[in-house]
Amino acid sequence: MPVVTVTQLNKYLGSVFRGDRNLQGIMIKGEISNFVCHYKSGHMYFTIKDSESALKAVMFSQEASRLKFLPEDGMSIIASGNIVVYERDGVYQINVRDIIPDGKGKETAALEQLKRKLAKEGIFDTAHKRPLPYMPKKIGVVTSLSGAAVRDIINVLSRRWPIGEIYAVNAIVQGQSAPDSICSGIISAESAGCDIIIVGRGGGSSEDLSAFNSEKVAYAVYNCKVPVISAVGHETDISITDLAADMRAPTPSAAAELAAAVSVDILIDKIAVAEKRMKNAVDTFISGTEEKISSVSTRLSARSPENQLKLTEERLENLIKRYKFTFSAYLERNESKVNEKIRTLESLSPLNVLSRGYSLVYRGKELVSKADTLEKGDIISIRFGEGGIDAEIKDKW
Amino acid sequence: MQKSRINGDKMEEKRSFKKNMTELNRIVTELEKGDIPLERAVELYGEGVKLSAICKKQLSEAKIKITEVDGNLPSEK
Fold it and tell me: What ipTM does this complex have?
């Protein structure tokens, strides 16, 4: 029996593995554990295991960088690659080329991948979201016309927005041809002149949202020239169409309400407000004009001849009053002066002197002050303080 | 005069509700500015009252128009 070295053995086994077609291009199903991504090289090292066994796995950075998701412990996957011998350690492992998530996780991960891709391409950018038209003229509805959604939308719009017009395009919303059908429905509604489009599911119990998660529909919504409301109607999952749409509605009815944000009732109120504002404006206008007129007429009458006359009269009366007042004051002042004079005058009266014992002697009317002017036998009149007498001159001294 | 008035009404009834509503709002705004001659104010008020009546009529008489098309037919051809 020949003796071989470990290296020889491992090299031999390596060649055996490489030569076995069953071990090359194999797909292994299992769960990831002990996941490590070497931060410098970017190589990924992990174990793929199921309930009983485990397999070492390596994914080199070249392949790892192409993955659309980051593998993590506990993830169910299908890894494809070759089984090789790692000669240094004498272990076999899988050199992984690609990993796809397994089962339900597969769809989720694929969807996440698509979401990331579209987000990168700007399909979900809020900057691209357009405002919904105020009072839309023609509302496009792209959905299955046999479903309940279109009836709900028609009901809401008939009530809230009878002024508008509905352009309903039948579309297949489930299955292989659904994405194309929805896309052509959107284009049809757009070219029919709709100024807003509701894209939704036809209702029913199916949870199949795949058409609304397709890249095609996302782009059709994004490229649509008019705003799009999505009404895919799923409470927990947000579809790609929801993200791409300008507005997302939880149900078709809600989408219709969003489309007809201004309802007839609101408009009737608005008209009433407009009427009231007009009336107020006119009232204000009229009362303002009246004020202007009355102010002008006040100014006018202030300058009328009648008023001038009245003013003159008033002035005259005023003057008279002042005159009277001044005059009576003058009189009062002078009366006391006169009384004083009278008193002085009285005190100087010769009658007062006479009362003290002096007498006045007259010849005829002439007052006699010198005895020389009188002759014996002249008749004189003597005036006393009280009374008087006539006397004859008897003798002269 | 009477004739042209009737024609005018008809024109506004044919005009879209949105346009009539916009016009009504314009009239209200102009009236509220106030710095206009009395004749203009009277004229505007008259127009506004007429327009609001037409708007209300348009709302009460409106009936939604529905067109249904099968979007799949052309693609299946």
Answer: 0.76
| Alpha-carbon A38 to chain mean position | 53
pLDDT of B49 over the 60 cut:
yes
Q: Which of A166, A264, A281 lies at the smallest CB-CB distance from B66?
A: A166
Q: Is the pLDDT of residue B3 over 50?
A: no
B25 close to A (CB below 8 A): yes
Angle in degrees, 0-180, between the axes of helices B17-33 and A264-302, rounded to the nearest 10: 20
Strands in A388-392's sheet, in edge-to-edge order, are A366-367, A360-363, A379-383, A388-392
Domains and CATH numbers, chain B: 9-71 (1.10.287)
> Between chains, do B31 and A275 touch, taking CB under 8 Å as contact?
no
What percentage of residues in chain A have a pLDDT greater than 90? 45
The pair of three-digit structure tokens given for residue A226, joined into one six-digit string: 């008019």
Give B3→chain A minimum CA distance, Å: 26
Q: Which residue has the tokens 């790892």?
A: A64
Cα–Cα distance measured from residue A231 to residue A250, given in angstroms and rounded to the nearest whole number? 6
C-alpha A187/C-alpha A184 separation (Å) is: 5
Instruction: State the amino acid at position A95 in one-letter form.
Output: N
Instruction: Tally Cβ neighbours within 10 Å of residue A240.
Output: 25
Sign of CA dihedral A71, A77, A82, A84: positive
* DSSP alpha helix (H) spans, chain A: 6-19, 61-64, 104-120, 148-160, 178-191, 215-223, 240-244, 252-259, 264-302, 305-348, 350-355
Which uninterrupted H or E stretch holds B48? Answer: helix B38-61
Q: What is the pLDDT of residues A289-321, one digit of tens each?
A: 888 889 988 888 888 888 888 888 999 999 999
Structural domains present in chain A: 6-103 (2.40.50.140), 113-262 (3.40.50.261), 354-392 (no CATH)
